[in-house]
Amino acid sequence: MGTECHHADGAHPGLKGVALNRALSAAENRCAATQERLTTPRRRVLELLLESDSPQKAYDLIAAFGEHGEPAKPPTVYRALEFLERLGFAHRIESLNAYVPCRIDGAEHRAAFLICDCCGAAEEFEPDFSSQLAAAETAGYQVSTITLEARGRCAACRAD
After folding, report:
1. Any idea what the CATH number is for the domain that residue 29 is in?
2. What does each of the 160 residues of the chain score in pLDDT, given as a tens digit?
3. Residue of 140, 134, 40, 128 whose CA lies nearest to 83
4. Which residues, listed in sequence order, are joined to residue 122 by a DSSP beta bridge?
5. Structural domains counted in the chain
6. The domain containing residue 94 runs over which residues?
């Protein structure tokens, strides 16, 4: 099998229409419940992440920020990304230096990603690190972050 990807765009679609509005409303409700503010710039960055079919670099978000094509000032987007990460609405994929919306509802969790080397899709999943974290605590470590990124080819690209 060759390494060229013939995977059609849209197999890992972002949110559109009603689904997008529902996700943005849920984010606003979560912010209100924790007395945080989903300001207009924060909401716009979250909207861009939710709409995207693949992980987005900060400079892509800066360029796409304006409703009419005007870019944002970089600090605006970086502050919004920091907020979205802190509240669990977005994750940074370290190896890609890119961001994705959180796709797992509910309480705080440790995210891990399956990254397709062909189409660039990143699928979030929640790994079970309980035994490793228990071993770390026994050894006296306090773990603050864990990064797990598995690379390969998604099912759609493998089928092509």
Report:
1. 1.10.10.10
2. 445 565 544 445 788 999 999 999 999 999 999 999 999 999 999 999 999 988 999 999 999 998 777 889 999 999 999 999 999 899 999 999 999 998 776 556 778 899 999 988 888 888 888 888 889 889 999 887 777 899 999 998 999 8
3. 40
4. 115
5. 1
6. 17-159
